[in-house]
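Example (one chain per record):
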Amino acid sequence: MIDVAYPYFDTNLSWLSNNYRLLLEANDETVPVRERLRFLGIYAYQTKEFYRVRIPNLLAMGEVSNDIRSKLNIFPESLLEHVYETVENQLREFNDILLSRILPALLDQGLHLYYRESFVAEHAAFARRFFLDKLFRYLQPVFLDSRRMLKTPAFESKQLYLIVRMQHKEDAQEEDWYATVNVPSEPYGRFLELPEWEGKRHVAFLEDVIRENLPVLFPGYNILESYALRVERETELSIEDEYPMQVAQRILKQLEKRNFVQPAQYFYESAMPLYVREYLVGKVSVPMNDFHERGDYLYMQDLARFPIVSRRLDYPFQRPVQNPEFDQTKSVFEVIQQGDQMLHLPYQSYEPIVRFFNEAAVDPHVREIHVSLYKISPNSFILNSLISASRNGKRVTTYVELNTKLDIQENLQWSKKMRDAGVKILLSVPGLKVHAKMALVKRKVQKGWERYAFLGTGGFYRLTSREIVDHALLTSHRELTNELELLFGYLSTQDEPKKYKYLPFNTLQVTQFNLQKRLLDLMDREIANCNAGLKSFITIKINQLQDHILIDKLYQAGQAGVPVHVIVSESCGLISGLPSISDNIIVSRHVDRYIENTRIFHFGNRGNDELYLTSCDWTHRNLHRRIDICFPVLDETLKSQMRTVLRNYLNDNQKSVRLDLYQNNLRITDESRGKVRAQEANYRLVEKIERNGLSRRSEI
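Predicted structure:
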């Protein structure tokens, strides 16, 4: 039952609702079978992240006082029970989809994945040779018995293990022995492709190759059984990111008084019997409720990297379309000077962004480069460009976030490379991540300074740009670039935002300064226009929508009669369809072959619509604990393109679902206007732009 006095859907349950949407995609027989495996892998990864990020918060909230929990309308005991039950049901469906639908579909395509099966003789022999010649050197068998080792086993976080039970051959009456064997993720990956047999290709999990050869690893012992286990120690308690500062401080103070410690999480395969778990509990000295069952295999996110690639198994290749404005005869800066440029990724080529940084590195007129780097690969193109620029005498400043929950080691590696090359590296203010995707290039020319900016909804993912939907604006717009320089200037102070509230951000909207107020003002304007009988609407495409202040304003707009449509990619705290509260609000969720990351805000404004792009989700963390930006699309042609992009999402009846009161994912069955699939339609859009020849002047 939904409490209308507190009309916000729980973040944890919304996350799980989004996870279930991934299972729906994996179960869709119109999706190529390898893509269905990928969606199972994404589901497994998201579930792992849920336990790493959300479960610690729920456990922590169980330790705080009732008055705080009542104020936040959170009841962790019952919620945890609901969460565990939901995950258990989803995992059963996960296994059913894999075993009953996807593995048979792979067989129909001539592919066999060994799944809890014994190898045929030919494959057993191949696996033995691979084990001895290549895999053996990476294995670390360790006994879990005080007769052979220290009493407490050292399970590494994120490492997959086999727990092996065995008997000594010379004394079968002796107490059973236990040992661990690591399942190395490098250098061979999770799967081993086996020789063709009986006209089919065959693949095995790496741990099954190890299981098959455990007698080689433990000579002198009879192997009785083995089961997979992994440990997650890098759990994340994000109280400060989730709640207002005063509330968060009260919670953390109470947790400190109660000596709350984030527990490690132990995940085991479903076949592991109770007596093995009890043995492990005794060894690691943790309660049994820190052990969580996970299907027949662990780390199933690796299904997203299934090794066999075939045109029959994947979506047809979509070539990255060239943006016709960026021909090779013109400088990137010359093109941008002629007008704003928009890149629709991954449908268009990423090449203009590569050229933007490469040209900045060698252009003799470029004096300064400023760029924020949130997550990046050590072999990224931008790393090399910035190093080249610094060695060419440019003043290069990077604003680095070393505390991202992923890739910390990689960030440290490339930070050292840049520092050695003379790049100035500024770290984020503690507790305030720079999440904005932005860069500024300053050129000194005869008439003065020229400024060129990259503003994106996503980061510089050179290797993954073919998998993620994002938008990037390349602009020399005076107000935008001047205000971007102001923002980089503030970041160079490495000081608290509250000391710089006077900074005049007007065209560029910045969290900590003016973004939330600007969003509220824009929605208030739509309400006023609606009340005056003028054209009004609010369309929000976003990953996460959780901020209660902004949700309340959307409710207010809907109640005033403003048409409100929210498209979410992840969690959503807004509840659509609540009588007298959100009758006029539609919430949909979109999942397709590419991961949705672009964020778009569109406001009717009496028919003179305004459209914004951003890297900022509507969460407490993004609005109050990060530096994020939101920027307008000012060029009319580019705005027309973005209207079409957004309209395709709104009209999608193939890959979008509607969310009801309880965030059930409801398929859209209305095809009266034909079938519309947004990602396909948006790819056709950029093909049309290419055919028209000049993207900035291509009216859609």
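Caption: Residues 580 and 650 are 23 Å apart (CA to CA).
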